[in-house]
Design a protein that fits this description.
Blueprint lengths: L12 H20 L12 H29 L4 H72 L5 E12 L5 E12 L5 E13 L2 E6 H4 L7 E5 L2 E9 L4 E12 L7 E6 L2 E2 L3
């Protein structure tokens, strides 16, 4: 009955001891990790760039504000300047429109001027042609009058026609003249022809004979024909000489035939 019992052990002692050991281990673990590790954070370069850009933008804004305040204190009105620029732009637009209208009118005036010049040139050519035609008809009329008025027994020489054409060089011309018999052509008519040109030189009246017109090569023209004879005499006018009338004198070698004198208007056919 008597049992030797040793120290009394509680039934849950072993479990309590194990719990302590486990609790101590967990505590040691937490004690070792109680101090957090040191972490070094580095600022990104983008942040520094953003801060620098923001500072520069703020600096520029401040500079602009100071600039505007300076202009305002100096009396500069931004709204008035804008209105003035608008007014000047409107004036420029009006001036450009007026300039375009003036250029259009100038082009129309130039067109009208060119048209009038052409019309005047055409009228001048027509007048010249009409004058030449009238001159030829007058010569023909004078010729036929002379033929009709000439007596049956009379024997003479008449100028059938005379015309002037331009030469190859300036101031050079050719006088074309046709002589015919007025009356019966039973014998040959002979004689001489004298020419003289009336005009102005340097504002003074001057008369040039055939010797002056031919440079001394000819003083008169000789004719000898039975029915008719044509002449084509080249003449040269002095520089600046303005011809007016050409006088022609036909002298027959027969004493009983009176000389013939006739004046013609100096009209050049197809001038250069």
């Amino acid at each position: 009955m008597g049992r030797n019992h040793g120290p009394r052990r509680w039934p849950g002692y072993a479990g309590l001891r194990l719990t302590k050991v486990r609790f101590g281990s967990i505590t040691s673990i937490f004690s070792r990790s109680a101090t957090p590790p040191l972490v070094v954070w580095q600022r990104a370069p983008a942040l520094r760039i953003a801060l620098f850009s923001l500072g520069a933008l703020i600096g520029l804004l401040a500079f602009y504000i100071v600039y505007e305040l300076g202009r305002y204190n100096a009396g500069y009105d931004r709204q008035a300047a804008a209105e003035q620029r608008t007014e000047l732009a409107v004036q420029i637009e009006h001036l450009e429109k007026s300039n375009r209208e003036m250029r259009t009118k100038l082009a129309e005036a130039d067109t009208i001027r060119v048209g009038r010049a052409r019309e005047q040139a055409q009228v001048a050519r027509d007048i010249g042609d009409l004058q030449a035609q009238v001159g030829r008809q007058s010569q023909e009329l004078a010729f036929y009058r002379g033929v009709v008025a000439q007596a049956a027994t009379a024997l003479g020489v008449k100028i059938e026609q005379l015309r002037v054409s331009a030469g190859a060089r300036p101031n050079e011309y050719t006088v074309h003249m046709a002589l015919v018999r007025s009356g019966r052509a039973e014998s040959e008519a002979s004689g001489t022809v004298q020419m003289s040109l009336d005009g102005t030189l340097a504002g003074a009246a001057r008369t040039l004979d055939l010797a002056a017109l031919t440079g001394g090569r000819q003083r008169e023209l000789r004719f000898g024909f039975r029915y008719f004879q044509d002449f084509a005499q080249d003449v040269t006018l002095p520089a600046g000489f303005k011809p007016d009338h050409l006088a022609v004198e036909v002298q027959s070698s027969r004493k009983d035939v009176a000389p013939l004198s006739q004046t013609f208007l100096w009209t050049v056919e197809n001038p250069p």
